Amino acid sequence: MSKDGSESAVSWSPKLVRPLRSRAVFLLAFTAFFLVSAGWALALPANGTNDEDEHIIRAYGAASGQLYSAPAAAARGGGAWYDVPRSLLPVNADCTYRWELPASCLQRPPDDPSRTEVGTAAGRYNPLYYVPVGLPMVISPNMAGIILGRLISAGMVAGLLAASATIAVRRRSPLLLAAVLVAATPNVLNLAGSINPSGLELAAGVLTWTALLTLVRARAGELGDRWTSQLLLAAGIGAATLVSIRTLGPLLLGLTVLACMAAARPGRTRELRQRRDFRLVGIAVSVAGLFGVGWTLFSGVLDNPPAEPTPRHLSFGEKLSYVVGDRLTQWVAQVVGRFSYGEVQAPNGMLVAWYALALLIIVPTLLFATWRQACVILGVAAVSVALLVGFEVLYYQQIGWAQQSRYILPFGVGALLFAGSLRRWEHRFGEVATRRFVLLCGSVAALMHLWALAVVMTRFQVGQREKALGALHGTWLPAVGPQLPLLTAALGGLLLVALVLLTRSPRPGSAAAFTVGLDALVPGRRQPETVSTAGNPVKVDQREE
C-alpha cells in the first residue's frame, strides 16, 4: 500500500482496454444482458410482471400521441384514461395473479383494433420511457407488439448495464465488474424484459454510480482527457435517465451525488468542476431534472387516492413493528427475485447464493477500508433502508403496505458498487483469488438467471402450486414455445461467463498479433498525450486509458 493510502491494483492487461477492445467488451456485455432479458420477454404472458397491464396502456397511449391525459379516478382511484385498441390486452388480464392460476386462464383478446377508453393507474407517469416501448404496439396492437416493446425495453436496459461493465473493464477493476454482474439481479432483468420503467431506472442507477465512482476515485494522471470526457458523458446519460423517468429520481440522484462526493479523493471534485464538459453535462442533467420535476408537479402523479379498503388504524409503534417483522424480509427477497405480483419468490437457495456473492464483495472491503470509505458504504445501505421504512410508515394510511425495494435500489446499489470499486479486496487477496472470484460471480449469475426464469415459467405454465420445475410443458405455453426463451437466457448467461473469461489477463503475447492487426481499423488514433503527475510530465497512451 502506498503512503497516501492508495491501493495497489490487480488489473487486466492494457491490451484489453484499447478502444477497439472496449467496443468489443460493450457489444459482448450488451448481447449477454439483452439475451437474458429477452428470455423473460419471450416467456411471460401479458401482465406477467407487476402492473404490466397498466404500463402497456400508458405505453400505447404515449406512443400514439396521447402524451398527457387529465388526472381522473380511472384506476384504483387515480391514474388517467386513454384510448387503446380492444385487441391489445386480454379481457381478464389479472386472472393469473388474482387467483394464482396458470396463464391458460387468460381470455384471448378480441380481434378488434377499434379503440375504447381504458383507465390505467400509470396514466400520469412521465412519457419518456413509454414512447419507444409503445411504438410496436401502435403498429401491432396485440401480443406481438407487446413482446417487441419488451425487447426494446430490454435493449435500453442492456445498453446501460453494458456501459457499466465496459467502464469496469477499462478501469481495469475486476471486482467492479463482479459488482455490476451481481447488481444485475434476476429481478432487474425480469423488469428489463417487461413493459415497466423500473428496469431502466435500476440500470440508470448502476451506470451513474459506476461512472461517477470511476471519476471521483481516479488518481492524478490516471484518466486521460478523452476518457474523462467519456465517463462524464456516461454519468450524464445515467443521471438524466434516472432523474426524469420516475418520481423519486431527483431524490435518488441527489443522494448518489452526495455519496460520491463523500467517497471522492481529496481535490478530485474541484478538478472535475473546472472542466467545460463537466459543466455542459451538468446543464443537460439539470434540464432533464427540471423536466422530470415539472412533469411530476403538472401531472398530479403525487396525488395518491386513499387505499381501498381503508387500512385499519395502527399506532406508529405497530407500524414499525410490522415493517421490521415482515416488510424487511419481503424487501430483501424483492432485490433478487420476487416476481409477477409478488406471489412468486425465487427459491431460498438462490437468495442465499446471490446475497453471499454481494457480501463477499462488501464485507472484506469493509474490513480493509478506511473509516471514511466504510462510512460511505454503510451510510448508503442505512439511508436506503431508512427511506423505505419512512415511506412505508408515512404513506400507510393512504396506500397501505405498498413500498418495494426496487423503488430505492438505484441508490442502494451504490453500497455494492462502491465496495467493488475499491481495490482493497484485490490487494489483500491477490490476483489469483480475484480472478477466481470474478469467474465465480459470472458463473453463478448465469445459472441463477436461468433458474429464476424456469421457476417463473413453471408458475405461468403449470400453476403456482407446482413444486418441481415444469418449464417445458403446461396448460399454457409462450407463443414462441418454452424452449426458445430458455435457450435465449442460457446463451446470455454463457456470454456473461465469456465476458469474465475474455477480459482476464492473457498470456504474454497471446493477443499481440491480433491487436496490432486491428489497430489500423480504429479511426482517430492519437499520439501519446503528456499529463502532469505531481509536477512531473508523464506520457499516457490514449489507447490504454
Automatic annotation (TrEMBL):
It holds the Pfam family DUF2142. InterPro entries: DUF2142_membrane. Keywords: Membrane, Transmembrane, Transmembrane helix. Coiled coil: none annotated. The chain crosses the membrane at residues 24-43, 143-163, 175-193, 280-302, 351-369, 376-395, 407-425, 437-460, 480-502. The keyword Phosphoprotein does not apply. This is DUF2142 domain-containing protein. It comes from Cryptosporangium japonicum. The lineage of its organism: Bacteria, Bacillati, Actinomycetota, Actinomycetes, Cryptosporangiales.
